[in-house]
Amino acid sequence: MDNGPRLRHFWPMDSDIIIAGGGLNGATLALSLASAGLSVTLVDAKPREQRQAPGFDGRSYALAHTSCAMLRALGLWHGLADKAQPILEIKVSDGRAGQGPSPFVLEFDHAEIEEGPMGHMVEDRHLRPLLLGALDAQPLITQLSGTAITAQTTGPSSASVTLADGRAVTGSLLIGCDGRGSGTAARAGIRHVGWGYGQTGMVAAIAHERPHNGIAHQFFMPEGPLAILPLTGNRSSIVWTERSGNAARLNALTDADYLAVLRPRFGDFLGNIALAGARYSYPLSLSLAQSLIADRVALCGDAAHGLHPIAGQGLNAGLKDIAALAQVLAEARRRGEDIGRGDVLERYLHWRRFDITALALATDTFNRLFSNDNPVLRLARDIGLGAVNALPALRRGFIREAAGLTGDRPNLLLGRPL
Questions:
Q1: Is the model's pTM score more than 0.85?
Q2: DSSP string covering 99-123
Q3: What is the per-residue pLDDT for 5?
């Protein structure tokens, strides 16, 4: 089923770039490339109506300061600003359910940096429709929804995909934004390495009696972390990590029984709590593509890396990929280069490879260090949290890292157009 406009023909190719996957990463990449004058065919296996689902299942995203700057540069932030909750502080602590946090608390305050809030919380039900509307308004983007890519080939000057409905689409470059288990990566011969954590992330929105004051909490428990992230009003989003077997039992509970188990973990610092939407869960694992590129193929977002949500960097890491790749391709086009050529794609690989590997290592290490009840490790991590909190320069470095303000940032993450 094709719910987008009919395919336009650009001789000798249908568009400059083909994107596989119409989720958050695919949509944002398409808009980024179109902002630089590149034509895009966005192929999404999901029907359009599934992307427009208005229900609230608690999913929200902690967008770093630089991710918000990117949306601003793309002309999208004005549609989110009044629905986004600034993250003003982050408090990190260790403990056990029902016993409260240890006295060693690491606190990050946005007042320690000049740029403003470290980020904003944005609900999926607001972000996704905004992107879909922007896609519809962009004449350089052709949307093909409800049909999957079944085959792909590459040649000396083009990439081509065959759709389930029999159509063929060609472009200079194919970009996989088709998530974990990416078909684009598999067909290009790009393998993934990784492992499961035996944990499940349970997501919900919680209404509470007292204001959160823009403070995000990361509470580490032996089974996994509980993140309490501020939303607009007296609401917070939780990402509650449990061992998968226990999570399955919890997911089978009624809402009342689910809350009864959550309360001793959540604590009473925000007063009485209640569910403010549907519940959602997903298995946690690490997945890293052995390469971000192949012959006329590039990968972005979850197709390139699937991370533990312990640092809330999954979508932010994907937006970094998008900003870097879009800039590489826009600059190559301005120089008159073939945007699908290997030496062009190598620039993207070199820009993102180290950051992705470092982030994957950090999230994996933190999860292993904190998701246990070993008394020696508990003492070491409590001392570590207290030590970092006592060193302003080190603490400020962590704040800037959380806000995305470190490293070689592409123009979009600086809030500048391509």
A1: yes
A2: TEE-S--EEEEGGGSSS--SEEEEE
A3: 37
